[in-house]
């Protein structure tokens, strides 16, 4: 995923009305500075600094779109007010009128590119201390004024830097969340495709082998195998179409009515799944204990996919003429799923090259359950999963 520059300046696209407001506010700010010179000749430096700081509200639009221009304006206005005030007032706090410059510089640090910050910092570092030094009378006043100026600029710059880092961190968190969501979605789709296609191809391969062996001696059995291949192929094609349609849709209601998505498989389809494996030489028995109840869609689908993948592995690795048992044990807190077979089990490296067991483990982990898979001491293979269930709804809860 492409990464956008977090410190890029905001867009400067404006309407004529917004530009007029921006520069109108700038003119009012300049007019306020002139009033501080001619209208209040005996005002203290603190009062002048407070008025100029409050007048920054006139520069909100300019600060958002052209903070460098706002910085130049405030620096010029502060210098004019500081030196113009000397005609009627020689108080030692005249340097405080540069406080708005520090605030605007903090905004530049928080919102502009690093190159723009470097340029603004160079200009402020060269001009403001020189202007402040010219206001001082004596070395002690010079030292104090410069110290206050440097500390004010440093504090505003640090505040801007913290705001910048916080904004960039939030943007990184959003990007990370989007990337994790995309990864999770890809993994979900990969699991769905693997579980669906791997099972179907396994069944088709078995039926094709049966058909090729008996096509001359037992035409009826060969025809039966071909029918099973056709049915499995059609079911797989329909599932692939549902998946591709879901991927192509930009919005949930876009393209509705073109291709029916159909319901996702679940526990109700385990009987049909077991029956589809009968012609592959695997006899499957499904047993349910406990009080069976409706499951949330994600758990219902995951249980079906876990059983489907486990039985697909039986077809692949256990050999012909085996029996498999699917056990579903419902309790108030969890559902225990167990798939056993009495075949020869997987080879030593089978589980390392495929994605079946990994996919089952991921499904169970997403549901905060426990999963185990491995050969049985008496022969065969065992897949077990324990999935926590939400509390059943009661009439009182409704």
TrEMBL record:
Transmembrane segments: none
Reaction(s) catalysed by this chain's protein: ATP + protein L-histidine = ADP + protein N-phospho-L-histidine
Annotated protein name in UniProt: histidine kinase
GO cellular component: membrane
Species this chain originates from: Streptomyces lavendulae subsp. lavendulae
Pfam family, one: HisKA_3
UniProt keyword terms in alphabetical order: ATP-binding, Kinase, Nucleotide-binding, Phosphoprotein, Transferase, Two-component regulatory system
Signal peptide start and end residues: none
Record flagged with keyword Kinase: yes
Gene: liaS9
